Every structure is written in C-alpha cells, then in structure tokens.
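Readers of this paper often ask what the protein records in our data store actually look like. This encoding replaces a full spatial description with a residue-level series of whole-number codes. For reference, a complete record is included directly beneath this paragraph.
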Amino acid sequence: MRSDKTLVLFTVLAATAAFPTAAVPAFAADKEQILYNFCSVLRGGLCSDGALPYASLTFDASGNLYGTTSLGGDGCDPPGCGVVFKLEPAGGGEEKETVLHSFGAGFDGYSPLASVTLDRAGNVYGTASMGGASGNGIVYELVPGKNGKWAEKVLRSFKGKDGRQPTAALVFDAAGQLYGTTFEGGTGQCKDGEFVEGCGIVFRLTLGASGAWTEKVLYYFKDKSPDAINPNAGVVFDSAGNLYGTTSGGGTYGVGTVYELSPEANGTWAEKVLHSFGSEGDGVYPAGLVFDAAGNLYGTTYSGGLYGGGTVFQLVHGKNRSWTEKTLYSFCSMSNCEDGLFPESGVILDKAGSLYGTTYLGGAFFIDCQNGLPFCGTVFELTPRNNGPWTEKVLHSFQNNGKDGVSPDTGLAIDATGNLYGTTGFGGAFGSCDGPDGPRCGVVFEITP
C-alpha cells in the first residue's frame, strides 16, 4: 500500500531541490501538555495500561477521552494484544487512565487500530483488526457495569468473504445502525503486494429484536480499474444518507480514490468514484474525510503533491453531482520539511472553518528522532483566505528527545474551547517498546493553540 518510509523520505528530500521554495509557513508559540505516558504500569513484562496507540481520541458528553492501543494490556502474552482506555481529569493537571478492556489472542479480537464510537447511553463500539472466531477481526461493544467493570460483547467476527482486517472507526446512522469498512476481504482476488481474497468491503450492522446484530455487505470493492480497492478509513454520511470514504488503492492510477455509495430503491448500494488520485500534484494514498457545513469534503494524502510530502485536499460539490478536487496545501514546501511531512490521518474542522491535523515526520527538529529517521512530526493548522491560498501554521513540532511524543500518525480531537488532543505511537517517558534502546511506548497530548 505504501512505500517504505525511509526510502520515501530521502527521495522527497532529494526532490525538493528541484522545486522553488514556497512561502514560509507561520510557526506558532504553542503550549503542549502530556496528559498520559503509556507503559507507566508494568506487570509481568506487560505494559498493562497499553502501548503504541494508533488511533484518534473520542470525547464523551462529560469531556472524558477514550481511545485504543495496539499493544499492551493484560489479555495475552508480551507484548500484549491491545486495550481500550479512558482518560478523565484527576485534578492538578493530572489525568487518570482506566483500562476498560484488555484484548486477548482469542475470540474477543486483538490489535485494535481504530478509534472508538460512543452511543447515547455511553456504550463503546469499535473494531479489532485481528482475532475473533475466524481470525479476521471483529466489531465489539463495551458496556459499563454497576461494579465499575466493562463487559465486552463481540457483535461480529468477520469470516473473510464478509470482510477481513477492519482498521477504521465505526459510525452510527439516525436509526442506530453501525457502518464501517474492512481493508481486505470480500469476493474475488485482489493484488496488494500479493494476491489475497477480496479488496475490502463497506458493511452495515443492524440490531435485531433478539439483541443480535446482523451484518449486511453494502459494497464489495473490485480489483478492476477504475474501481476503488482497499478502504483504509471509515465512512461519513451526507444529509441525504449517502456514504463517502477513501481507498488506498485502485482508481485510474492505482494509488487511491474518494468514493460515494448511494442507496438504491431495490436495497442495493451504487458506488461512484468521485476522484482518482495520482495526477500531477494532487497526492497519493488518501486518508479519511470530513464534511464542512457547505457539503464540501476535506482530507489528506500521505505522499505526493508538489514536493512529495503529502497534501491536504478539498472536494467541492458542484452541479449534477459533480465533484472538483483542489489541493489546498502541499507538504515539504521548505527545504528541510519544517512545515511537515507525510500526513497519515485526515483533518478536523473548527467552527471558523480552519483545518487541523498531524504529520508523521517533518517539523523544526532535525536531529535523529526515531530509528535513525530525522524529524519527529508536527501538529498543523490550515486557515482559509478570501479568494486566496490557504495558510499553514505549525502549532507544534515534536522534539528530538521524544519525551513529548514521536511521529503522530493519528488525527486530532477538538474540545469546545479549541484545544486539540491526540496520540503518538512512540515517545513518552516510560517503557521500551522497540528493543532495549527503543523510542518508548507513546503518549496522549494536548495542544493549546
């Protein structure tokens, strides 16, 4: 799906010399606070509180944060199978972490890579990318009990033909049905490095009167150009009930698409590729999407663009269901990629229409940061101008000592006052999650712009 980051990095840095330097982005004086360092609780060689978070955070109605880690927990042998956690203020600027569930290597799934979704009752829903009855991943629900413990219920164990490797978050519709994607699985053969069964699906789960959830596959992606393949993000709804998402492969050029699924009168769903990435300057390998109030879509691409370091893009909804793609910003416009490099996740919007996101590498610190790779990543803001280009502002550059986090590859959450929250898979104060001299086990951070 993606090239090796080390190779791509040095290719990008060599290529930037061929382009004129763009206008220098603004650098803001930010305030970063580490809310939690993972692997602060060690038991039997396990990071019982979790390690290596690869998912964005989710707020509940009280302002508490929920998330997942891909490793750690007490559910299986080292390095652990991952956890679902909750962070709540403990006073004095401290945060209390509670592990709601430690995944095991059995039927309850393991290695959650996606953020969680909450219903109105406070129950937590999510996906684990592996495990379950057939080893292809699961959809789970966590329900709080009177004793303070949370009970896990597996809503769906994927079998392969109905999906494999769910790596994205779920979304509810107004009727309480759950929608999601799996990266692989379905029907037919799909080439993603090697031939596997199925190119991914979009699915719906419906709760029946008996309390059981029933899965319906809304669409099977096909390895036949220009169709999309391998959805790497979840879906979003428009006001008419259509679904939108991205794939990391397929399309006219084979490097990703934005697609739409529309319900038909006969109960089927029709797919339409709205944009195929890979034409000059528009980026490759898109991440998840977000709507603005006017019905336009925004997202990022991991690489490509004018300088090879990825982009932020907009899809504008036109007449006759047409969509026009516009690149709002190309990363690595500066000679040392101080403006950021490789945005792995999508963006979020604030009330004023500004966009916020993270980049996996780049930033203001050029000393070795992780496994010999320079740059530790950024948190950025993009602000629209009237009839002009969008302005990028680097809100935070993660530092070379790694204690404030290393290489964020997840999106952000925003509170009512505009503070930003996110995770990094590496860095922090505790643990050694990548060998004896590893870059530690990840953090939860807050940025006050």
In short: Residues 1-24 have pLDDT under 50 and may be disordered. The domain at 5-448 is CATH 2.120.10.30 (Neuraminidase). The chain has one helix and 37 strands.
